[in-house]
Amino acid sequence: MINQVTKGIKISVDTKYKGIHHRNSKLYHVFSYIIRIENTSSDTVKLTDRFWKIYDTLNTTEIVTGKGVIGQTPVLKPNDTYTYSSGCFLESNIGAMKGFYTMINLETFEQFKVIVPTFQLSTPLVSN
Predict the structure, then answer these.
(1) Count of domains observed in the chain
(2) From the centroid of its chain, how far is CA 69?
(3) Which domain holds residue 29?
(4) Does residue 112 belong to any structural domain of this protein?
(5) pLDDT digit string, tens, across residues 55-81
(6) CA atoms lying within 13 Å on the CB side of residue 88
């Protein structure tokens, strides 16, 4: 599991390979990831936006942005955690993701970025 702390917000990432999927006459490797966001600060924060860079060794880098995560903009009080899962499709069996969440401190109204560390996406090794 990968971890990163920014301004008291701890991000933990766990990934899983889900197999192969055919879509639009193409073969894709499907990966899921679970992200845990833990507020270790003394302030209440709200996640407002996301930014992802998805690297695929057989494809160009894809940028994904949007409001919240999985349709939600969670509010985390001190010591709260929020966990969600999502996924991505890669043409290659190796890739990576990294990014950040834009958050707002609901007490000071300061907006800040919380780094999501680079995490690897790879298929299990095949052995004889």
Answers:
(1) 1
(2) 9
(3) 2-120
(4) yes
(5) 999 878 999 999 999 999 999 999 999
(6) 25
Position 66 in a domain? yes
Cβ neighbours of 35 (radius 10 Å): 21
pLDDT in tens, 91-108: 999 999 999 999 999 999
Report pLDDT for 127: 43
Residues β-bridged to residue 35: 13, 84
Residue with tokens 């401190």: 105
- 37, two tokens: 């966001």
CATH code, domain carrying 77: 2.60.40.1470
pLDDT at residue 49 is higher than 70: yes
Asked whether the CA dihedral 51, 53, 54, 58 is positive or negative, the reply is positive
105/22 Cα distance (integer angstroms): 42
